[in-house]
């Protein structure tokens, strides 16, 4: 595992997980950063009834690699008809329906200030402040105990940056983690997706130093991007941890720039692991899928691309998506449902982007239906001729209920499970027919997406 001050870019140094090889599994899929909060809508779990969709976002389609949807449920030419019926929409106990949204901060329309009351006999006396010192100043400056949130903050803050993208009259903000001493930064694709012609990117470190930045490469499918702080040197790269070692209930800390408030530290626990989350892309862009770490640490617009770390100060996730309450109230802050891309998957994608300028993803060579059905599992809609799935004996109409020991309950769940592996991995699929009978296992060697 790399320590602070060491570059994370070289093969074998991206996290060196105890239970993983140096080349971590490729990740096919997430989203919290870059749109005006007034314009930010709720994202969705496509195929998950009960979640409203981001305005203007298309349904997620792709191959099973990536899902195939029939949004109208009508079948028809070019659409896959599935024997199983559609489930009843899920009901929620709250008046508003929860939705997925990107955590984005927009500087152009946001003014955050501290309001103080004036003290004195008249307006000419000016504003005064009354302060009380609590505790021992010497005690406050003592080195914090290892494993505390305070110790984590001191270790990690120098490795997390705020990112501002300015285009014309608008500016949006997100976060990022330093992965090399010369300014390579890991962030979300949706944080920098608007950094096209005429746009500029500014990176600000914890000590206030500012750098212009350029985009190295992006991968919308996984919502991962790498940018370069121009002329940077001597920076402190973040230490990479092992997300597989996380346990539900374990304490974690989120660090980023929510609502433009740089170097913000919040804490919580791991609420769940292997949570399939699908979110629409920014401004109608490509949707992304994330095999997420769920946390109740407060994550808000602007936290996207930042750091979710364990109490050793090691990066375990990239905050990317939050659930919000829908309705007309416009609520878009944290409700304790945040989702982060596992660090090993993010780093595997980042390494490919640095080395090749693009990333490939593991696939089985089949398409799955992501609509909700009464079938428990992932319904195979179509099998690619000559692909790994066909060679293994998988057929259209089959239902996949497990990948190795991991339960699969939907098409999105199957995609997330496959994307948590690496190209060339052999996985065991538990398969039944459309009636849930004839259960058997098949082995599939994952190929690379084109």
Structure description:
Residues 1-19 have a biased composition (Basic and acidic residues). Belongs to the peptidase S1C family. The protein has 450 residues and is mainly beta. It has 2 domains: 1-52 and 97-109 and 144-356, Thrombin, subunit H (Beta Barrel), CATH 2.40.10.120; 64-96 and 360-450, PDZ domain (Pdz3 Domain, Roll), CATH 2.30.42.10. Helix content is 10%, strand content 30%. Mean pLDDT is 75; it is low at 1-5, 10-31, 33-63, 66-99 and 103-138.
List keywords for this structure.
single chain; Pdz3 Domain; 6-stranded antiparallel barrel; about 10% helix; Trypsin-like serine protease; PDZ_sf
Tell me the structural class. mainly beta
Rg value: 23 Å
Report how far apart the termini are: 32 Å
Number of strands: 23
CATH architecture name of the largest domain: Beta Barrel
Q: Specify the CATH class of the largest domain.
A: Mainly Beta
Binned strand content? 25-35%
Instruction: Provide mean pLDDT, rounded.
Output: 75
Largest sheet: 7 strands, mixed
Structural domain tally: 2
Low-pLDDT windows of residues:
1-5, 10-31, 33-63, 66-99, 103-138
Tell the overall outline. globular
Question: Roughly how much helix do the residues carry, as a percent range?
Answer: under 10%
User: SSE order in H/E notation?
Assistant: EEHHEEEHEEEEEEEEEEHEEEHEEHEEE
Q: What is the fold-level CATH name, i.e. the topology of the largest domain?
A: Thrombin, subunit H
Number of helices: 6
């Amino acid at each position: 595992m790399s320590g602070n001050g060491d570059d994370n870019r070289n093969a074998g140094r991206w996290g060196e997980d105890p239970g993983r090889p140096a080349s971590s599994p490729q990740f096919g899929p997430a989203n919290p950063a870059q749109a005006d909060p007034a314009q930010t809508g709720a994202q969705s779990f496509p195929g998950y009834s009960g979640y409203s969709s981001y305005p203007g976002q298309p349904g997620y389609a792709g191959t099973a690699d990536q899902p195939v949807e029939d949004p109208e449920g009508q079948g028809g030419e070019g659409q896959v008809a599935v024997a199983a019926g559609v489930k009843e929409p899920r009901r929620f106990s709250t008046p508003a329906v929860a939705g997925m949204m990107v955590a984005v901060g927009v500087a152009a329309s946001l003014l955050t200030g501290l309001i103080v009351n004036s003290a004195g006999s008249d307006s000419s006396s000016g504003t005064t402040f009354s302060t009380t010192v609590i505790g021992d100043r010497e005690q406050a400056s003592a080195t914090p105990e290892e494993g505390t949130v305070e110790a984590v903050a001191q270790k990690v803050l120098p490795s997390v940056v705020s990112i501002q993208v300015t285009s014309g009259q608008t500016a949006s903000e997100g976060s990022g983690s330093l992965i090399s001493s010369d300014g390579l930064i890991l962030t979300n694709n949706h944080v920098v997706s608007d950094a096209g012609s005429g746009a500029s990117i500014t990176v600000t470190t914890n000590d206030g130093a500012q750098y212009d930045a350029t985009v190295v490469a992006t991968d919308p499918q996984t919502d991962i991007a790498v940018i370069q702080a121009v002329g940077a040197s001597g920076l402190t790269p973040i230490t990479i941890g092992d997300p597989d070692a996380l346990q539900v209930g374990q304490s974690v800390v989120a660090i980023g720039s929510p609502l433009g408030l740089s170097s913000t530290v919040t804490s919580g626990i791991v609420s769940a692991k292997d949570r399939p989350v699908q979110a629409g892309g920014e401004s109608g862009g490509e949707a992304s899928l994330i095999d997420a770490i769920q946390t109740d640490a407060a994550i808000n617009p602007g936290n996207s691309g930042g750091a979710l770390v364990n109490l050793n100060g090691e990066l375990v996730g990239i905050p990317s998506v939050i659930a919000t309450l829908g309705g007309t109230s416009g609520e878009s802050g944290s409700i304790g449902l945040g989702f982060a891309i596992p660090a090993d998957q993010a780093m595997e994608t980042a390494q490919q982007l640095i080395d090749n300028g693009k990333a490939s993803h593991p696939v089985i060579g089949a398409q799955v239906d992501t609509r909700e059905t009464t079938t428990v599992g992932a319904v195979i809609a179509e099998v690619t001729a000559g692909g790994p799935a066909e060679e293994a004996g998988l057929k259209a109409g089959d239902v996949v209920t497990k990948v190795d020991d991991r339960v699969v309950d939907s098409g999105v769940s199957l995609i997330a499970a496959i994307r948590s592996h690496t190209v060339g991995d052999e996985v065991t699929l538990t398969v039944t027919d459309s009636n849930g009978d004839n259960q058997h296992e098949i082995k599939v060697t994952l190929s690379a997406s084109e």
